[in-house]
Specification:
Layout (H helix, E strand, L loop, with lengths): L1 H27 L1 H6 L5 H33 L3 H24 L9 H25 L7 H5 L18
Helix pairs in contact: 1-3, 3-4, 3-5, 4-5
Length: 164
């Protein structure tokens, strides 16, 4: 359990650093990022608000994906299928509502698509968080998650003098 929590802690740190860097780049420089892939000014203007919002979802998705991957490696692949299916269905429904203005929601176009994606990723994260807190199969150990590289204190039987 210690090794699993340490690996998960390291993966979460790595994932969060990369996701936060991407979120910051997309939030601060959406036009420049889009200009890397297209020179169509209309697409850049339409896509910039989308990238600003959707980039934030990467942070939530990074944590969810690491935890789901850990559960897959612990022979629980159904969790990922259920969580990501629920997230995809919610995202699709919210896209329909927020892009086209259905069920009383405002028609927001590409901004609505970004809000739908961010909302789905937050819900995905919350589902994973609740599952992680209630899961007894692999209990989370915050001390190991938050400090994955810290070595545990030596016990008297761990030192060289303990060897026969």
């Amino acid at each position: 359990m210690e090794a699993i929590n340490r690996c998960m802690g390291f993966a979460m740190y790595a994932g969060l650093v990369i996701a936060a860097a991407m979120a910051a780049a997309l939030f601060l420089f959406p036009h420049q990022v889009l200009l890397l892939v297209t020179d169509n000014r209309t697409l850049v203007e339409m896509g910039a608000p989308y990238l600003r919002i959707v980039g934030i979802s990467y942070i939530f998705n990074a944590v969810s994906s690491v935890y789901v991957s850990m559960q897959r490696s612990a022979e629980n692949p159904a969790l990922g299928m259920k969580v990501f299916a629920a997230s995809m269905l919610l995202n699709t429904f919210l896209n329909y509502c927020l892009i086209f203005g259905k069920f009383g929601a405002p028609a927001l176009g590409t901004t609505g698509a970004a809000i739908a994606t961010l909302t789905a990723r937050i819900v995905e994260f919350l589902i994973v968080l609740v599952y992680a807190l209630l899961c007894r199969r692999i209990p989370l150990r915050p001390r190991l998650l938050l400090r994955p590289g810290a070595l545990p204190p030596l016990r008297p039987t761990d030192g060289p003098e303990a060897a026969p």
